[in-house]
Amino acid sequence: MKMTRSLVVPVLAGLLALAPGAGRAQTATPSVYVNAPVASDAVPPPPSRSGHCGLFETCAGTRIGLGKGDFLIRLSALGVMPEDRDSKLWINGNAVAGRVKTTRQVTPELTFEYFFTDNLSVDLIAASSRHEVAADGVGGAAHVDVGSAWVLPPTVTFAWHFRPHKRFNPYVGVGGTMAWFHNVSPAGGLVQKLNVGFTGGPSVNAGFDYQLVGNWFFNFDVKQMFMRMHAWANDRGGVSGPFIKAHDSLDPTVVGAGIEYRF
């Protein structure tokens, strides 16, 4: 009995020594967890602007280039250069040698344009310019001042745009021009009265639009208009002076450059 007791005691003592955490449960210090901040590589988002896009900004919602449904208003500086290709003069019904010359002019121009499709647009220009008219080589005179007149030539043009929805978009077009002459003033001397008739003709043009920022575009345009001017000076057989009639192929070349905005 003594032998059995002596064997059991050491065995129990060994088992207690092998048990995990035995003898340490009462003295172990509890673990403490600390929530430390963690560094992040993410870039903070920019402050919200509530979807606002400035007038002179290109934003995520800004459409690039021009296309179907776009409507533009353009303000340009316009150079009007009459070519005076061919002239005919009559004095009291008799044909005489000579040539009509018309001065060049710079004037502002307002244009309205609408895109029917991505490629096809129509535009209407409105401008008015004042020109001096003279005759050279008439009756032995080197130069005779005839007078001056303002011309209002509204022009409708249908244009084909080659690169819709691109920043750079060249085009060509065809159209027609009607021209009214107003505020006509005779020069005096040989010309006491002056009348200029309504005229018109076809036109062709070429140019390009370039998107600058947001809905703002730069435009450059060259038009060639084909029209004749018909003018009468003094009364037929009257006492104001010799009756002078002139036909002149104005055929003006019109060059414009300006800024336009898309609505």
Automatic annotation (TrEMBL):
Q: Which GO terms describe its biological process?
A: transmembrane transport
Please, which domain of life does this record's source organism belong to? Bacteria
* Gene Ontology CC entries for this record: outer membrane
Alphabetized UniProt keyword annotations:
Signal
Kindly give the Pfam families that the UniProt entry links to this protein: OmpW
Please list which residues make up the signal peptide: 1-25
Task: Note the PANTHER family from the entry.
Answer: OUTER MEMBRANE PROTEIN W, PTHR36920
The entry's family comment says: Belongs to the OmpW/AlkL family.
Q: What is this protein called?
A: OmpW family protein
